[in-house]
Amino acid sequence: MDVVSRPVQEKVAVFGEARGLIGVLTLPTGDPGLQAPHVVLLSTGILHRVGTSRLWVSLARALGAAGLACLRFDYSGIGDSERRRDVGSMRESVERDIADALAYLSKTRGAERIVLVGLCSGAYDALLVAQEDRRVVGAVLIDMPGPFLTWRHTVHHLLQRALRPASWKHPLQKFLYHSRMLLPAGPADAPDDGAGYVFGGRSPAARERMHAQLMRLLERQVELYAIFTAGIETNYNHRSQFREVFPAAARHPAFSYDYLPDADHGFSVRSDRAGLIAGIVRWARTVTP
Amino acid sequence: MNPFFFGTKERRLFGAYDPPRGAGRRGAVICYPWAREYLLAHATIRHLSRLLSGTGFHVLRFDYFGTGDSAGDVADGGQDQWLADVQTAVEELKDVGQLAQVGLIGMRYGAALAAWTAGRRRDIDRLVLWDPVFDGRAYLEELAVAPQAAGAGADAKGAVLTDRLRHEMETITLTSFGPGLPRTLILGTAGPPDAYAPLQAQLAGAGVDGALEHLPDVHVWEAEWGGSGQGVGMAVSAVNRIVAWMS
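ok -> structure tokens follow
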């Protein structure tokens, strides 16, 4: 990636419980100004802070070049960070890790305004942490898991499959499957992995919960930038899908949105990474007063 | 574990140093695989590093220039630079641990870099080649390289493969291994038991004290891609075997 347009400085960050959390802090060489937010890049699943396709390194340096300090770090037990001993559940551990990262930036950098960036599970982590932490003024939610399935998604899905002869096998089995997808949503159709991540489904309860989470932030004037790919096509596959599920959030002035239909979930293609990074840097400048 | 940057101002490398438990007088530099294999194997390499330090080794694992957390971009680097990075890491660990000799452990592409380095130094006492790449052309096929516009290199599952790097990788052949290597373990966890027999024969012909062991285990550098992109587990048996052999 040749997205870095001016030099940045990077240094190792060690913080958290027993100084067990490891990260890298990217600093702009110029003075970012007191009001410029600090950006925190959150872990994706069990991948460490470098990120899929080195995405977080490239993004951190691009944000640094744009004048924004950026911390990428490993959740406890992932990458180089130690496993926490002071918590029980994975959800609690993740939330404490992020709280420690924000505390580190506040203490060492005087950071009062934070932007969280997450991909996949990290996006949902950002959404949850932002609920309670008033330092969070913005969040980038990339391919956030959620109850996004709609009848229109199913139609898109079936149309795309119909164009692939290989998908015509087992027609009865597939008819039954898609018939189920088109039935009215029930309360139990949104699988939850126990850590709060909801993958797919159309559960009214899950939608109501995520709607409340989104609106709570937007009404607090937290800037949200949701980005979706069609990388997990069974969950998300057309541009208007977010608006169909969460119309009030989609039309809120603090909400921004992009759909990248050609990108895969891991942004394994260089041009897709460059486009994503350029979009986030452009958006981040709007959060900077 | 002590994370730090080392190397020159122009070529800052990210390293993770695990000090030995007790007064260890031996050392090991671990060479990661490349591209997505690096990302997927990271947890296993970290586990290996910890176990080695627990048995009294000074251990340094590090990111090549333009990869991982190290400075630069792949387009700025290449195989010649990465070979220089391995040498820098060896010097760094010798300095940190006050060691006269260290071992080198390399996985996949990192094994090729480790072997090249070990063949040109006198201060490498042991070498582990974990599922080594010994045929650069075959390796490039495995990477499923997607060509880009002329002069823009290619995408190799999340990594940028410049034209120069591709040519450099194509030069990796059996003859890249030996002579002059120290005592060597070839550990094969993938493929049939004789997958690395040609490499063993090459080392034997070069007069290297080389052992080949086949130990089926998780291929930690592989994962389903385009979906979750997550790793597939930890190669516990392979790690334990390497620690035992090094010790």
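The longest strand of chain A covers residues 8-15.
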